[in-house]
Amino acid sequence: MSVDKPLVLIVDDNSTNIDVLVNTLKHDYRLGVAKSGTKALEYASKYIPDLILLDIMMPEMNGYEVCANLKSSTHTQGIAIIFLTAMSDASNKTKGFELGAVDYITKPFHVAEVKARVQTHLSLKKMKEEVNAQNLILEERIQEKTAQIQEMLKATIQAMALIGETRDPYTAGHQQRVAKFACDVAHIMGLSENQITTINFAGILHDIGKIRIPVSILNRPGKLLYAEFDLIKVHSETSYELLKNIPSPWPFAKIALQHHERLDGSGYPHKLKGDEILIESRILAVADVIEAMSSHRPYRPALGIETALEEIQKNRGKFFDPDVVDAFINYFSK
After folding, report:
1. How is the chain split among helix, strand and coil, in percent rounded to 5?
2. Chain centroid to CA 264: how far?
3. Terminal Cα distance for the chain, rounded
4. What DSSP line would sit under 280-296, residue for residue?
5. Distance between alpha carbon 204 and the CA centroid of its chain, in Å?
6. DSSP β-bridge partners for residue 8
7. Is 160 in contact with 127 (CB distance < 8 Å)?
8. What does the pLDDT profile of the chain (334 residues) look like in tens digits?
9. Nearest to 60 by CA among 71, 72, 69, 52
């Protein structure tokens, strides 16, 4: 098998599960197999696979322990891990994400789902590597190639955003619209061109972390359970984890991390208050609320711009920066 194909390590103590996964993936990837946590750690350390499919419930060392060991080592912490689990409790899945896994696949396996999730995360890994390589060139030839490489970076970011949106047709275009609203208002408020560029990239990618959220939750028409909402709230931290290691002069990862923070400290993930929140994030937060409320969602029809503006005006100074709210109201009143 070609060494150019990604290497996927399958870790499961059940031979039947291994056979299913091997038969599903063998034509597209190089495969390794480990039937215990100890063997998985040995294999990962020696061969550094591109992705690991990791069973949670194993004797001696469970999947959580294996994941924690891998992420604690600089040698293996960059390996993407997808948990294999028969557990349906959202809190168990959230634990896996907190340990550093990128996704999970539920047993019994569905061939199409396994292929899609593996391909999605390997595509993301390849894109991140391409962005890293592009930015090394940027550092070496900054004066000569800045404009060209920025366009390449933008194209890659757009591709990453599209990967996330393909899983959720109801919010297709949401990130681009949020980015446009935020950039227009940032310009009105007099932010620098560098800040506006940063807001644009952050806006396009602020919800990329939703790639870890099950489609059944994203597209659910009814009210979410508390555990399901907790799982959704992880997406801003996931976005940050996916973006933080991309070398860039623009802090779009940190802006994406903070886009659900609120002035009074009631937001997430870190309950920041006031000026602890970047001005770019404060702008993005309002743009996100306006676009979400004015667009259709599985659980409600579109509420319209006027309703969205009333909502931000009602929470002016509480959740949202007063200057930002005023700028958005002026923007939409033209």
Report:
1. 60, 10, 30
2. 25
3. 61
4. HHHHHHHHHHHHHHHS-
5. 12
6. 31, 51
7. yes
8. 556 899 999 999 999 999 999 999 999 999 999 999 999 999 999 999 999 999 999 988 999 999 999 999 999 999 999 999 887 666 777 888 899 999 989 888 889 999 999 999 999 888 888 888 887 777 776 666 556 656 666 666 666 666 666 655 555 577 788 999 999 999 999 999 989 989 998 888 888 877 777 666 666 666 766 777 777 778 889 888 888 877 777 788 899 999 999 999 999 999 999 999 999 999 999 999 999 888 766 556 678 889 999 999 999 999 999 999 999 999 998 7
9. 69
Closest CA to 172 of 297, 332, 6: 297
Q: Is the pTM of this model over 0.70?
A: no
- How far is the C-alpha of 157 from the C-alpha of 175, rounded, in Å? 11
- CA–CA distances in Å: residue 159 to residues 80, 95, 156, 244: 19, 28, 5, 17
| Token digits of residue 236 | 């801003």
> How many angstroms separate the CA atoms of 99 and 91, rounded?
13
Nearest-angstrom CA–CA distance, 67 and 51: 12
Distances (CA, A) of 305 to 291, 295, 312, 331: 8, 9, 11, 12
Q: Burial level of 207, CB count in 10 A (0-12/13-18/19+)?
A: buried
Other residues' Cβ atoms within 10 Å of the Cβ of residue 275? 10
Determine which helix (DSSP H) or strand (DSSP E) holds 52, and give its type and residue range. Answer: strand 51-55
Domains of the chain: 7-109 (3.40.50.2300), 136-333 (1.10.3210.10)
| Strands (E) located in 133-179 | none
CA distance 11 to 254: 34
